[in-house]
């Protein structure tokens, strides 16, 4: 059953919201001890919310577009009365005192929040191994990382512990785990979804976005959480319309111009390339036109991204000084968080900012301009989401090996464009993600392409 079919079934009372929630709670009890996708569940509150929705449906009252659907929220997005820790000892006892805008919008549409999901500490990672509360297992490939930093949210959907989940994406933190866990993940155009209530990693790069099993679920969640937020400074007044997108996606690929960038394949493992090329062949069979493109700045993307990330992360973490709440971050955080704080502190100094940070901003402008130019002649760009397969849990990687997971995903964040990942196939049973990128505010076009790919 697709998520849109389930939504209709709940509204028609063929399935009750309570039955849906209880089924997920049962799955969580069975699987979460080994997978560690959820850090906190509020079972009684979820059941009470489901009962209220069922009562409204029985009385013929109007219900929201997420009525009775179960949602997981990444642990760096504020939810009132939940522990919002960003998977760090720094905030291990911090209780959210308000709801993020996206959480309020989910509740307004009768979505049921089950709990908060695991992540890399302060979103600084690509594997969900750096969480203070333990690593998350990949449900699709036990023994391997689920990706990060939103690994708990991806794993929760992949393990069928919830209908939908939210993550945050600074340089691939939604798309990376979506690829490794074999689900769909979407990073919207910068400013389409409010960041109010997000514990930011790098404010000029961060976006909140959804995970789902199908394109209909992605569209439904974006239709809920997207839109202007007057209290959030990066929020855009004009945002895409996501309503009914997948209902209109019959023959969506026919006539679509699909850009294929040579350099994205050059940096990826051959087995991944083979899977992606097979999927592109299917797109052409469905009527898409492939346009070959070249991007000469692939080697510039990672250093540009991380220099900006370091500086903005250092700035964002200055509020965790142990005075108002929690512990002083430098006293209790893990190695990767400390590394980013120290490097960010160093290159933020006046004598170094011109040498590193300002040059990174110039490089970012160049990357944005070149990607915009590439997108000018096509509808979307497709390629691998992640250039290599997920490593085994506990395997030791040096810093640059870990950062290399992000080489194909940071581009969308630097350019502020929408991007998604969906399963393209498997290599020896390990999911491989296809990344689809589009022009700013062409988010809906990406979902059309995802829905078209689902059909084939």
TrEMBL record:
| A GO CC term assigned to this protein in UniProt | glutamyl-tRNA(Gln) amidotransferase complex
Which top-level group of life is the source organism from? Archaea
Amidase domain location, by residue? 19-446
EC nos: 6.3.5.7
Instruction: Please provide an example of a Pfam family that matches this protein in its UniProt record.
Output: Amidase
SUPFAM superfamilies assigned: Amidase signature (AS) enzymes
GO BP annotation list: translation
Instruction: List GO molecular-function terms, semicolon-separated.
Output: ATP binding; glutaminyl-tRNA synthase (glutamine-hydrolyzing) activity; transferase activity
Under which main EC class is this enzyme filed? ligase
What does UniProt list as catalytic?
74, 149, 173
Q: Which reaction does it catalyse?
A: L-glutamyl-tRNA(Gln) + L-glutamine + ATP + H2O = L-glutaminyl-tRNA(Gln) + L-glutamate + ADP + phosphate + H(+)
Oligomeric form and interacting partners: Heterotrimer of A, B and C subunits.
Q: What does this protein do?
A: Allows the formation of correctly charged Gln-tRNA(Gln) through the transamidation of misacylated Glu-tRNA(Gln) in organisms which lack glutaminyl-tRNA synthetase. The reaction takes place in the presence of glutamine and ATP through an activated gamma-phospho-Glu-tRNA(Gln).
Which family does the similarity line name? Answer: Belongs to the amidase family. GatA subfamily.
- Name of the protein in question: Glutamyl-tRNA(Gln) amidotransferase subunit A
User: To which species is this protein native?
Assistant: Methanobacterium bryantii
Which gene holds the coding sequence for this protein?
gatA
